[in-house]
Amino acid sequence: MKLEQFNQLTDAAARAAIAHCVALAGWSGELAAARPYASLDALLQYADKLASHWDADDLQQALAAHPRIGERASGAGKEAALSRQEQSAVNDDDSRLKQALRNGNADYEQRFGRVFLIRARGRSGEEMLAELQRRLANDPQQEQQEALMQLREITLLRLRESFQ
Ligand code: 2AL
């Protein structure tokens, strides 16, 4: 999509055009409502500013749309396709890595009560495993900040890639 097209869509269509970036209707609604944008940079900056205000409730809600690392997203929707693409580094069958991620995910969920979230694009499976193990040592407050930052990165990447 081109920025000029996005600027001219109806409100509902504009929300729908960015809904795959994150499962937070408030974010897509505010971003759509602030159109028109003079440049892609202006759009990305505002999107990031909105994302910087996310809290624990937003994280919990948005996580529903993110499958575990190492678990191939099923489904035909746009989010599932994006997730499979982002996690392509762990889509092969390295069963040792998969098992280590499964164990790490289980430890993480027990410790923090939610799914481990990381920006997968640009990271190998080993890098994600190392991050998972490092973050297990965080205290809950620190870890919430890290997870929110990852959600912000995933969202902005998806938004950037929605435009040409
Ligand atoms: C994901 C996902 O689906 N895409 C991504 O970058 N990270 N999932 C996750 N649990 O971190």
How many separate structural domains?
1
* CATH fold group: UraD-like
Category from helices, strands and their pairing: mainly alpha
Mean pLDDT: 95
Question: Could you name the CATH homologous superfamily?
Answer: Oxo-4-hydroxy-4-carboxy-5-ureidoimidazoline decarboxylase
The ligands bound in this entry are:
1-(2,5-dioxo-2,5-dihydro-1H-imidazol-4-yl)urea
List the total number of helices: 9
In short:
With 164 residues, the protein is mainly α.
Walk me through the structure.
The protein has 164 residues and is mostly helical. It has a single domain, classed as Orthogonal Bundle (UraD-like), CATH 1.10.3330.10. It has 9 helices and no strands. 1-(2,5-dioxo-2,5-dihydro-1H-imidazol-4-yl)urea binds next to helix 6.
